[in-house]
Design goal:
The protein is about 15% helix and about 40% strand. The chain is built from five helices and 23 strands. It has helices spanning about 1-15, 140-145, 160-165, 185-190, 195-205; strands at about 40-45, 50-55, 60-70, 90-95, 100-105, 110-120, 120-125, 155, 175, 215-220, 225, 235-240, 245-250, 255-260, 265-270, 270-275, 280-290, 290-295, 300-305, 315-320, 325-330, 330-335, 340-345. Strand 6 (about 110-120) and strand 7 form a beta hairpin. It holds the Pfam family SH3_3.
């Protein structure tokens, strides 16, 4: 009832005022809008990102770019029996939202340029800064490129993160592998030969066109929590009220990074509306219970892509025995067990 009332009030507000056009989304800045143009391989063993495009046979064999990176920490603390590391999750994923110069909601004084989402709270982004200011590049992050010491995200030199930001549009496939052959020579060749001081001056010259305004969204669940991480267990930043306006910083399938007043964090996609005056979520949306592989056949076949927890999906059909469902996700069509999906508040995908 409260959600319906909020929607009605929002609609009345639109009719009562001369509303400005909705701000352009960061998607408008993309230099590539075809999610099938590139295929990205993230090689955890060698700490190398390779971008492929199709050859004359339609196979992804042509190397477009290669980057050295820093991925999630896998070395465990022998003094801490509960330490599980912070590894970058393996699998095949569909890339999501983007942010030009973002703050880490879970850490103080940590920022990075050119975020592109891999899955959940895992992003490609530049090496870190201590403020939203190009003059605050962190020496330690620069020195650690090529080592697996991050909290799970994939750090890149600024110019490489910038390339992905503009060319790896939402829906681009990224494969995260820990079983690639050793490539020590290539890894060494990709390492910057510049000193930190020289590189720091260089990265300050990487300019962009003025950033487009971020979209606005409206909270549709009274008491919705803004969290430090995009998951239910993330620490609470603040409680939001029905009808609160928030600035959308980065939109993901399940969680949206937002700013409200002077605070930043993540809100469940099902608890806000991205469309002014209209509810674009539903209480019986089909959401993934837990990250699962999308398969080519019911109960088997080949793996297509992983679908993350709490992602809204469209069910196309159910098998006669009721055990499997056929769904669509980022243009991919495949099968899941029927019990892999739950009904809850989520994005209305039809």
């Amino acid at each position: 009832m409260k959600r319906a009332l909020a929607c009605l009030l929002c609609a009345l507000a639109v009719l009562a005022a001369l509303a400005a056009p909705r701000p352009a989304h960061a998607l408008d800045e993309l230099k590539n809008t075809d999610p099938d143009k590139y295929y990205i391989l993230l090689d955890l063993r060698n700490q190398i990102v390779t971008v492929f495009e199709r050859d004359e046979n339609g196979e992804y064999t042509r190397v477009v770019r290669r980057f050295l990176c820093t991925t999630g920490r896998t070395e465990l603390d022998p003094e801490d029996p509960e330490d599980q590391g912070t590894p970058t999750p393996t699998g095949i994923w569909k890339m999501g939202g983007r942010e030009r110069f973002g703050k880490f909601a879970n850490f103080s004084n940590e920022y990075a340029r050119y975020w592109t989402q891999i899955v959940g709270d895992i992003y490609f982004h530049s090496i870190m800064f201590s403020a939203r200011d190009v003059n605050t590049l962190k020496r330690s992050a620069f020195n650690n490129i090529g080592k697996n010491v991050s909290h799970g995200c994939v750090r890149l030199y600024v110019e490489d993160a910038k390339w992905l930001y503009y060319y790896a549009c939402p829906g681009t496939t990224v494969e995260v592998s820990d079983s690639e052959p050793s490539q020590r020579a290539l890894r060494s060749a990709l390492k910057s030969t510049l000193s930190f001081a020289a590189y720091d001056e260089l990265q300050k010259t990487f300019y962009d066109e003025p950033e487009l305004p971020n979209p606005t969204a409206w909270i549709t669940m009274d008491g919705a929590r803004m969290r430090k991480e995009g998951k239910d267990s993330g620490a609470s930043v603040k409680k939001l009220s029905l009808g609160d306006e928030v600035e959308v910083l980065l939109e993901g399938d399940a969680w949206v990074k937002v700013r409200h007043e002077d605070r930043e964090g993540y809100v469940k996609r099902g608890y806000l509306s991205m469309v002014e005056g209209r509810l674009d979520t539903r209480e019986d949306a089909n959401l993934i219970r837990q990250t699962v592989w999308l398969m080519t056949e019911p109960g088997g076949g080949e793996r297509i892509v992983k679908v993350p927890t709490d992602t809204s999906v469209r069910i196309l059909e159910t098998t006669e025995d009721g055990r499997y469902i056929k769904i669509e996700y980022w243009g991919e069509v495949g099968y899941l067990r029927a019990n892999a999906v739950k009904q809850a508040w989520g994005k209305d995908v039809g």
